[in-house]
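Re: weekly structure request thread

Next one in the queue (226 aa):
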Amino acid sequence: MSYFTKATFTFLKDLKENNEREWFQQNKHRYEDHVRDPAIRFITDFGAHLKTLSKHFRSDPRTVGGSMFRIHRDTRFSKDKTPYKTAIGIQFRHELGKDAHAPGYYLHIDRGGCFAGAGMWHPDSPSLMKIREAIVEDPQAWKRTVGAKRFRDAYVLEGDRLKWPPRGFDLDHPLVEDLKRKDFIGVAKVPQKVITDPKLPEELVKVFRAGTPLVELLCDAIGVPF
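Done, posted below.
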């Protein structure tokens, strides 16, 4: 049986068009049936596959504080005051990570496009410094990791960058464009037909495996076990 179905994407479409609390309350059963419950079932089942990548990452099926991101948006500091996210976000983060900025694997399910992620999104300042220092200390390891055919065939490095090289680093360093990165995340497109396939866990772990060398490098850089 598939985890996510056409009804999942229909709900996300309808939510985007009716992003209001009253509508959501009237359609909460659809959210539970086609988004929340399938996601929790998927997270639970994916745990065994995750362990084949590393024992230090967690598949947490709790509905609050677990691997699935909450659907409610934090609108306090945003001009966009719509109350709900219109995509599904699932992160399998490192056991020592406290939030979404930890090393991890990510699945994004959206009508506009689904993708897998591997790496670190917006790492904190100490971690960011350690990653940059690791690149400078062993540039060949970085180039081998992100330049490997298996990685490049699946992933593209994405995320924010500084406009100028970070303070304390050589302006003429051959990897200066990578040193400017504020995110160290590989993104791999995942077709919707894979998301709705009953074998999603088996297919997704293959995608994550191609991104694992980057996750391992980042874990080594910030000093956590892989």
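The chain has one domain: 6-68+81-222. The mean pLDDT is 95.
Next request, please.
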